[in-house]
Design goal:
This protein is an alpha/beta fold. The chain contains 18 helices and 15 strands.
Length: 489
């Protein structure tokens, strides 16, 4: 019996040794279609890695993840730049328009497990449930229904042999580290946005020796996957102050007061269509990710409050049904988004007790049933900020409702002795990389090349409170389309 046990142990140890001694490799790496930027073509390569679903179990089943590389124009490029996109619930395979970066660095994308590759955690049932019940998106009835569909989906995944616990941020980091080794890079740079900044931060905690520099845009420190309604309220106050200071001839009063008035006197319907204040609040929050769309939302509230015209708010509500439930890979969104979940908190009770003008909206939608996804897959040590020597540039914007920069200023920057922070004025979450794209691209490339932060690249960008397009006008001009879209949503 003892001999059999010893033989079994020896075979097992031999198998483990063989698996872990295997050289990481990229499968089927081949030339892809040229990546074109401003009529200039860049060479690309595509391939994939095969990694265990469970990194702690060498005999676990494997999953396949794509790799996408845009090559630098330099014959001797510096350390490559690994990209981590936002989300969660989005693919990490994308291009770049940063020609400045590509002068000296390869641009590398490794697919996110759960959102890319052989296992994509998408659910039509969850998407449908995210539209709510009886035109009250955040009612207990709607949240309970969403919770039921989440549990059903988790049961389906288990039946299919998919271990949801293995689709956390920590496993993503192991996938990227495997790819780094397979590509033969000793040192790399990290470039991340929004949710991706959390991935980059934890990567730098776990593998600090391989990171040269890190650029984080829209920084999300540990504990901030739950959007804070008070911070959103503060940003509305900033908008109000800027709006008042411009002394516009058609000044309509306080933005916040218009919102409050619109919700207080909201009718049950606009035209034939029932109004859902929860969806309108959630869509307003999403539109505030860009200042241009935020201004369009404010204009719709002024029309509702001052002229009793709710057409624009209904169009925003309709946009929710078409964009938000269908815009994410749901299993990836909920699983990775539960990284900050505290099982000792009743999130539904806590978030519903809020009295701000927009409330917790999206946070309540995502956290109202998050207990279904919580599985403790993020070790406690990675839920807390720690000291890091990594050279890091934190980029933020003062109107960012998703990742307010004060979170990084107060909670992360003190733990980055080699860190710098740049906060841009009159921009929101998605504006930083788009409104002054050339300046942003040069800032990022220069930092990776030299470690210098050139703040002078950016110019002050005033907010135009006259929207380029008005939701109210669009709802009326395209009423037949709105009608059809409402019927078949």
């Amino acid at each position: 019996m003892n001999q059999v046990c010893l033989l079994t142990i020896a075979i097992l140890l031999s198998a483990i040794s063989t698996i872990f001694s295997q050289q990481p490799e990229i499968k089927n790496l081949k030339r892809g279609e040229d990546h074109e930027i401003d009529k200039h073509k860049y060479t690309t390569y595509e391939g994939h890695i095969i990694v265990p679903e469970n990194w702690s179990n060498p005999s676990a089943k494997t999953i396949q993840l794509p790799i996408y590389i845009i090559k630098s124009t330099s014959k001797q490029p510096a350390e490559p730049v690994f990209w981590f996109t936002g989300g969660p619930g989005a693919s990490n395979i994308r291009g770049t328009k940063n020609t400045e970066l590509l002068k000296n660095h390869d641009f590398i994308c490794i697919g996110y497990r759960g959102a890319d590759g052989s296992t994509i955690l998408k659910s039509k049932k969850i998407a449908k449930a995210m539209k709510g019940v009886n035109h009250r998106l955040l009612s207990d009835e709607s949240l309970d229904n969403l919770g039921v569909k989440e549990k059903e989906y988790l049961a389906e995944l288990k039946k299919e042999g998919i271990d949801i616990r293995q689709y956390s941020i920590m496993e993503v980091i192991e996938d990227v580290e495997y790819a780094r080794k397979a590509l033969g890079y000793e040192k790399i740079n990290l470039f991340s946005g929004s949710y991706g900044t959390r991935v980059a931060l934890l990567y730098s905690y776990k593998y600090p020796e391989v990171i040269k520099r890190s650029v984080m845009n829209g920084v999300n420190p540990p504990g901030h996957f739950i959007w804070d309604s008070q911070q959103t309220e503060h940003i509305l106050d900033i908008y109000d102050s800027l709006y008042k200071s411009q002394n516009l001839p058609d000044y309509k009063g306080s933005i916040k007061e218009a919102m409050k008035k619109s919700f207080e006197k909201m009718p049950k319907r606009w035209s034939f269509f029932k109004l859902d204040p929860d969806k309108i609040k959630t869509t307003t929050f999403a539109l505030m990710f860009q200042k241009g769309s935020a201004v369009m939302a404010f204009d719709a509230f002024f029309s509702a409050a001052n002229r009793n015209d709710y057409s624009g708010l209904y169009l925003m509500q309709l946009a929710y049904d078409y964009l938000i439930p269908k815009g994410s890979i749901h299993g990836d969104l909920f699983q990775k988004g539960s990284a900050d979940f505290d099982p000792n908190i009743n999130y539904r009770e806590k978030l519903k007790s809020d009295n701000t003008v927009l409330g917790y909206n999206m946070a309540l939608l995502l956290m109202g049933g998050a207990s279904s996804w919580y599985n403790g897959s993020i070790p406690e040590e990675y839920k807390k900020v720690r000291m890091s020597q990594t050279e890091t540039l934190l980029i933020g914007s003062n109107l960012d409702v998703s990742t307010p920069p004060e979170n990084a200023t107060n909670e992360l920057l003190p733990f980055l002795p080699n860190g710098r922070q740049l906060i841009l004025k009159n921009m929101s979450h998605q504006d930083v990389s788009s409104l002054q794209a050339n300046n942003y691209n040069k800032l990022v490339a220069d930092y990776f090349d030299t470690g210098v932060v050139n703040e002078s690249l950016f110019h002050y960008d005033e907010i135009d409170f006259k929207p380029a397009k008005r939701f109210n006008s669009l709802a009326k001009w395209y009423y037949p389309v709105v009608l059809i879209a409402s019927v078949f949503k």
